[in-house]
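**Protein fold record**
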Amino acid sequence: MTTTAAPGVTVRRVPELDGLRGIAIALVLVYHLWPGVLPGGNIGVDLFFVLSGFLVTSWFTGRFAATGRPSITAFWVRRGRRLVPALLCVLLVGTALALPTGEPLPARLGPQLLAALTWTGNWYLVAGDTGYFASFDPLWWQHLWSLGIEAQFYLVWPLILLGLWRVTAGRPIGARLRACSVAAAVLAAASAAGLVVGTVAGADFSRLYLGTGTHLFGLLAGAAVALWPRRPGAGTSPGRPGAGYPAAAVLLTGLVVVAVSARDDDPLAQAAGLPVAALLGAAVIATVIRSPAGTAPGILRCGALRRLGIRSYGVYLWHWPLLLTARRLVPEPGPVPAALLGLGVLVLTLAAAELSWRHVENPVLRDGWTGAFRAARTAGRDLLSRPLPLFAVLTGTILLAGAAVAAVLLSPGLSPLEHRLGR
């Protein structure tokens, strides 16, 4: 569907971006579930950042053209509807999973939950001097650092964007958008430069990687693409593959090269590879949205990949606690069992993400908080007339909540490794 808000500003849903999101989560899954296969697969997170920056800023460009002054409150409400329901569900179930997987319990579950709920997971890791790439002792909610950076961007970027819009008042809308796009690109370059210069200077790479200012380049690169005006109707009509097709294919190949070569044990390779991945991702988006509809590389239009992309947020949330749970249950698998363990975690992750999408995320996105609560109340009334399902639901909820609370209360302040190191 395409909505033309004003001359030079076209806002539409681009199905191929779901395919790109699917590629991003696939890179992350391979990176975590089968370590060593894609040493730089963590660039998938940076692809997510680029896509998020593009999508949220596209909402603002449409509102700029339509109303002249978007509501920041409305934006934050929309983001809350997208991010909060699945996060709360995963935090509850994932924390409960920590209890029955043996002693000792994961360390500092309470503070980690607080950091997750306040969108400060990245700074919690920095303050705790926890190296993100230290795979021998990962935290239970370590992967939520990226949500922290995104949420902080969502908090500040709309204010900056509105400020830029005011500064450029009086110009034609196309000129205003171009000026904002250039500003976003400059900020992205400054963020990437901070990461590279800090790494070359010998700073702790984990702190640079987790820091908001030095890892905003992907979000800002996506924002720059969204702000650059394009002709009305661009990419909306079917056409034959033109220059955009091979360009997008080359860019996607470049992303795979970076995922293979930007090793996570080489800070300089990471410092160079992450901004390159963000730039390639932004270029893919720019190419796709300006090409005739249906002419993007086939992989971006693959139904299974697009389906994975639509559910990628839930997949990202679920895969990490399920992986750590599996590793606690099978602490020292051989090479073949480890590969099978990853496959089992993948199956469970996809199943959990599907349930989350159908019963938690999509109802809130589709009907809003009020509609979702109304549907839940109706379902609750139906359960009251069915004793056995009602008993099962109540018992399961009580056990789940009890296990989560017990895991938090019993969680130690230090992990076994930290005890041995005398921290």
